[in-house]
User: Fold this.
Amino acid sequence: MNGGALTEFSIDATDNAVPRIRTAAMAVVRETAPELTDDAALVLTELVTNALLHGEPPVVLRLLPAPGGVRIEVEDNGGALPQHGGHVPEAATGRGLWLVATLARAWGVEPRVQGRSKVVWADLGAPTADRSIPTVELDTLVAACIDNAAEPTVTIHLGEVPTGLLLQAKAHVDDLVRELTLAAAGTADDLPAHLASAIDGVLRHFAAARIAIKHQALDAAARGQTTTDLTLTLPASTAHAGEEYLAALDRVDDYARTACLLTLATPPAHRAFRRWYVEAIVGQARARAAGQPVPPSARFQDVLDARSGAHRHGAQPRV
Assistant:
């Protein structure tokens, strides 16, 4: 990494991919900036793992010289954006970017290839005065993903939803997907074959809606708002993707209930919320795409109240 030289590693999702790449990359960092080796190992592990779990292949790691330090870049073709998971103490994921922001003197996200890929980067070295968390880049990437979708978009309004529930539900899905993806990266016997497509369905098919909802929930939480007024601009194909998303998560939940996972099956309140918002998106997206009147959607609070009433009378509500 002398002068303008670039060290680059292509990464696959095979077993032990992250440890193997980390060992090779740290040998390079140790020769160039040995005092940064430990911090670089932590940051690199987080960014590479995030790309393998939530990005699209190919995943490429680059180490570049930076003034007084080292730059770590991880590029992938996915549209899923790196975001802080919010304050969900019981979640198994969502803390990695806080670690990156703490160790790096600066970090950010850059769109590449007209918004169809992204690079997450972190500069390590002497700290600067500003180690703030970037937000503008995330908005830019959201806009780029929508602009390059090559299909019309529709506007969906879901109304007020508890912000805490949004963040908790998203964190639980992230926990499930992370555990299943790590299992899939092991031996072929670790994960039933039918769940491979379920992972893809959860991560890819409904990505635009999941990202938009999480982004709005995080913004509301940062402003101290207890509820989030969800308004989404999504591709017209979201209706079909939403149905696939629900089916995929149902399969994942069935697997979790067999105690084959450390992560528990989706809690009833989260499951009720998931079905409510996905079905509302599907109905509104189909109506708007067809130029028809948008069907009225029940308020989520009304759904919760009805569910609580059913429990009081001994019924088991369908969620």
Remarks:
- The two ends are 55 Å apart (CA to CA).
- The chain has two domains: 7-146, 152-312.
- Residues 163-184 form the longest helix (22 residues).
- The longest strand covers residues 153-162.
